[in-house]
Design brief:
alpha/beta, five-stranded parallel sheet, globular, repeat, EC 2.3.1.30
Length: 174
């Protein structure tokens, strides 16, 4: 596993991104440990991992209402603010240093594999829904309550239902 800018690697790679949120830190350490235990090696290797994966799912789902499957591809430095109600489809791909907030869904639109890809440094506001095979570009900001069904360009800010690209601060919105 890689190293985050703060020098952490392995199961602690999300630790500094969640400073001040000890419950989320524990959930993400368990997530990373379960991912490592789940690795290749077939059914025999996964068998000892089953109790750890079950414990992670119980803690994440029952205590924090975070549905983040171990099979999900997640980059380093994932930050989760108020994780309650966070749902991520297993086929979603999340880049490095992404921030997710409560009551957010990253999921399929038509088929189970039809899921969002979030580049690095994406910030997703609370109560947002990102559905389908969409790409969210590096540094994009998803406003609270947005429903995102189409690609989001890098460094863009989107908001609304359906989400629309907002003018940058230097542009006149009129």
């Amino acid at each position: 596993m890689g190293t985050t800018p703060g020098g952490r690697s392995g199961p602690l790679q999300d630790w500094s991104a969640n400073r001040g949120r000890p419950g989320i830190q524990v959930v993400l350490v368990l997530f990373r440990l379960a991912q490592a235990a789940r690795g290749g090696g077939g059914r025999l290797r996964r068998l000892p991992a089953a109790p750890l994966m079950l414990f992670y799912r119980l803690v994440a789902l029952r205590l924090f209402s975070i549905d983040l499957p171990v099979s999900t591809s997640v980059g380093r430095g994932l930050a989760i603010h108020h994780g309650m109600g966070l749902v991520v489809n297993r086929a979603t791909r999340i880049g490095d240093s992404v921030t997710l907030r409560h009551s957010t869904t990253l999921g399929a639109r038509r088929t189970d594999e039809d899921c969002p890809v979030l580049a690095s440094h994406v910030d997703v506001g609370p109560n947002s829904v990102l559905l389908g095979a969409i790409s969210v570009g590096r540094g994009a900001l998803i406003g609270a309550g947005s429903v995102v069904l189409h690609d989001v360009p890098p460094a863009a800010s989107v908001a609304g239902n359906p989400a629309r690209v907002l003018p940058s601060r230097g542009e006149n919105p009129c």
